[in-house]
Amino acid sequence: MKIEELIGVIPPIITPVDEDENVDVEGLKRVIDHVIDGGVHGVFVMGSNGEFYALDFENQKLAIETTVRHVAGRVPVYAGTGAITTRECIKAVKMAEEAGADAVSVLTPMFINPSEKEMYAHFEAIANSTSLPIILYNNPGKTTNNISVGLLKRLAEIENIVGIKNTSLDFSQTVEYIDATRDNDSFNVLSGTDYYIYATLMYGGVGCVAGTANVAPRLVSDIYDKFVAGDFKGALKAQYDLVPLRKTYSYGSFPVVMKDCLNLMGLNVGHPVKPIDHCTQEKMEDLKKVLADLDLI
Fold first, then answer.
1. 63-110 residue pLDDT tens
2. H helix or E strand, kind and range, residue 235
C-alpha cells in the first residue's frame, strides 16, 4: 500500500456476531457492502467499534480474512491488531499479513502503563516484524496510555510506521501531531474523533477513522470528498449534519450504539458482546429520530 492511499474516510466496521458471540460472516459482508456503497475510502476491521477485545484469536482471524476476501480490492483493508503485550501484537500482525490485509493498526497497550522508552521499543519491534504499513492508534481515554508528540516524531521515522489515528477530545494534540510530522512525506495523520474531521483536514490531516461511517457512510464521506474538491462550505455543512449522530454515542455503553443503529436500519447485525447490552427502549426511540432526520430510516 502506498502512502497516497492512506486517505479519506475509513470506518472501523462493527462486527456482527451470532447467538454464540462468534463472527457472523454474512452479517459482516452486509456491513462491508453498506459502507463501500456509501463511498468510503477504506475499511478498518477489528477496531474498537468492531469489539476486537471481545473476540478470540480465531474469530479475529475469521473477521480479517472475511473482510479481505469480500472487499476484494475495492478499497484498502486495515486490520486492528491491538493487544497488551508485544508478543501478542506481533502474532496478530503476522496473522493479518497472512490474511492479505493492506495495512495494520496498532493500539497502545491496555491495562499496563509502559514508559516512553518501553512504548518505543514495543512499536519498533512490531514494525520490524512485518513488511506491512503500520498506523498507530492513540486512544488514551480507553487505554490510559498516550503517544506524546515527541514519541510520535521518533516513531514516524521508522520506515513502515506511516500514520496515526488520534482518538482524543484534545484536538490540540492532533494539531501538534500534524505540525511535528508535516515535513515527513511518508507519514499521515487521521482524525479518530468524528467531531474533528473537518478541522483535521483544515490543519493538514488526510482523513478519519470514523465510527459514525458505519451508519452514515455517505454523509461522512461528503466531509472529505467535498473538502478535497474545494467545496469547504459543503464539507462544513456535512460535518455539522453529522454531529447529532455522533452525540448518540452517549445513549448506551460503548460500542453498542452504532450496532443498534444498523439494526434499526435493517442490516441485522445482531447483539453486542456481553456484558454490553442494547440501548434502552427509550434511547432506541431517540435513535430512530436521529436516523429519520438523516433519512437513514
1. 999 999 999 999 999 999 999 999 999 999 999 999 999 999 999 999
2. helix 232-247
134-138 and 43-45 beta bridge pairing: unpaired
The pLDDT value given to residue 5: 81
- For residue 55, the SS3 value is coil
The one-letter code for the residue type at 36 is: I
* Residues near 56 by beta carbon (within 8 Å), at least 6 away in sequence: none
Question: Cα separation of 18 and 237, whole Å?
Answer: 38
Catalytic residue among 61, 78, 137, 177: 137
Segment holding 136, helix H or strand E: strand 134-138
How many CB atoms lie under 10 A from the CB of residue 4? 8
Query: Active site includes 137?
Result: yes
Kindly name the residue from 165, 198, 224, 251 that is annotated as catalytic: 165
pLDDT (0 to 100) of residue 2: 77
224 in Cβ contact with 207 (< 8 Å): yes
| All structural domains of the chain | 3-239 (3.20.20.70)
**Is it the case that residue 240 has pLDDT exceeding 90?**
yes
Rounded CA gap, 225 and 9, in Å?
9
Rounded to two decimals, the pTM is 0.95
C-alpha cell at 121: 521499543
C-alpha distances out from residue 156 to 15, 101, 287, Å: 30, 21, 40
Helices 25-37 & 217-228 angle (0-180, nearest 10):
40
165 is catalytic: yes
